[in-house]
């Protein structure tokens, strides 16, 4: 294993001398040499020059199949012509206003067309903000203060979201509330009930125990950043919907990743689970910053709709921002959804995703490597384990060293994806990119097997 890793590190260094030089200067100005944690990786980050379609190019001129695709928003590939044409036209007519534009109504209608449970929608800037505002609305509506979230689910970068991700403690049936990094106050941890993902009996029991305190429970139907594509069980989600509804606890479905990716109606369409509130981002912005939250009309009307004015409401939540009417993102989102509505788009995305998952699993089986390829639709994740992982505890117990070597090998051979992260297919890919990706996986996994 160490031999294969050394080979991949050396290959990466040989291909990317420009990134290495750039890193030496960048880390003097940017913590870790990157604008955000997701961009860092050892031995040093890859610095990108440009991106187009299914590819990106680094500053040394190397081309990569982009399987991260910006963390998920570029479902049509980078800079799809229809979206770029719409944005170029919009740029000559303004970029943002506080005054509400007509495009906000148009995008809200388009979202509701595919997600009828989102009866009312508010637009925000990011997925983190969307989840945060859904939680705030739930607290205001129910009068309760605590939120239930699942161990290993990732909901963004705010204090009340960075809890019990890859950090966990206590028995699985009664997880502890732990900070995911420094700077998270104890008071925030105390307001969070941590639940065991994909453990139906324990989840129901904990919700029953804390029902009078819980304003909402938030869940990812397909685990994202920390769970890398692990899918929630159908019976687990059905039991979660039943127990929350019975106790008047709002169910928040985090569809930041899955919304308009696993299906036009997201995970709600795939599973048939109807949440009370939903958080969206990524795809709905057409590659530009955009998030949204919304759901039941009675909830949104009572605690989100202003009663008198923005400065004298006390019964409703505060939700606003300088870029609440981002004309560029709204326009890009409309163009993106129009393209996704074209016949055959989701069939292609799902077929490519299935080919990647099945292809990697087959390569692993042929080489005698214990590889689990998980995911749904155009989402895939890879684990080195004897059984498919169900929880973050399974993820941490898997062979993370081999997984890290695998992802490094992909990068060194021309596939861009960050370590341990879920991957995506996109509609700009054709069979040639999938075949090339699987050929690279074959070479990398063979090297790992021989190393």
Give a written overview of the molecule.
The protein is built from 15 helices and 16 strands. With 451 residues, it is α/β, with parallel strands linked by helices. It is globular, with a radius of gyration of 22 Å.
Rg of Cα set: 22 Å
Shape: globular
Structural class: alpha/beta
Helix content: 40-55%
**Main beta sheet: strand number and arrangement?**
7 strands, mixed
Number of strands: 16
Distance between the termini: 5 Å
- Main sheet: which strands, in order across? 5-11-10-9-8-6-7
User: Please, how many helices?
Assistant: 15
Oligomer: single chain
Q: Output mean pLDDT.
A: 95
**Low-pLDDT stretches:** none
Could you give a quick summary of the protein structure above?
By secondary structure, this protein is an alpha/beta fold. The protein has helices spanning 2-15, 17-26, 81-91, 102-114, 127-142, 186-190, 200-209, 234-246, 266-271, 297-303, 327-340, 345-367, 392-397, 400-412, 431-450, and strands spanning 48-52, 55-58, 63-66, 96-97, 120-124, 146-150, 192-195, 214-219, 250-255, 277-281, 291-295, 325-326, 371-374, 379-384, 415-416, 423-424. Helices cover 40% and strands 15% of the residues.
